[in-house]
Design goal:
- The protein is mostly helical.
- It has one domain.
- It has 9 helices and no strands.
- The radius of gyration is 21 Å and the shape is globular.
Length: 251
Amino acid sequence: MTALQGTPTHTYPLAPGRSIGLGAGLRACFGGIGFVVTTPSAWGWAMVPMLVAFTILGGLSGLGIWGAVEIVSKAESWKGTAGGIALGVLAPFVAFLIAAALAQPLSGFALDAIVQKQERALGLPARPNAPFFSSLFRSLRVTLLGLAVGLPILGLLALITALFAPAAVVTVPLKFFVTSLLVAWDFLDYPLSQRQLGVRQRLSWIFSHFVAVCAFGAMSAAILLIPGIGLVMLPFGVAGATRLVLASERG
């Protein structure tokens, strides 16, 4: 009744559409890259994950090194000096791990903005911005769920390879396949969240378009093999995932 009276609704459920295939997954991946590269208004949002990561990395590394210098300067024994030096050496590595873990969830608002820009470019109406903390906790929840399922499988495959080297003929492709699904799951979080899909609905959608999702994830994972490109690929992948979801809606 409210919608009939002209009040806008912001539910945006996922339209059923038809099952899409291999070509749709590949086009979505490259289309997302092309969209971000050729859309200047998206560049600022695309830089947010890198800026967040470098801020965390620089801040924690600097804090750790400052603490190490203070400990060494005030140390009265070789143990204190050794502890300070160890802190100075380890601080950048710990800071890197923390930055890598937090950069994506803390950048959720920017990645949501890229989803909206990609949707508007493809003809969808504007959506209201998701609250920052809602976006943050959603991203953490989905990422942790994917890791909780995927990491044990990858660990098992690595163990099998270590115990029986010839099994690598099977386990290495399987590890890439699992990684591809994890990458696709991660990128698809943003457009599917804006359609308010829960975990079961997401899994149902992924199985309905499994070939396309595998193609999209495999191509994205292959690009991620390039050293240091992870945070650069993140906004590209989110834009590509948005294109993939829209392709499924439009059949």
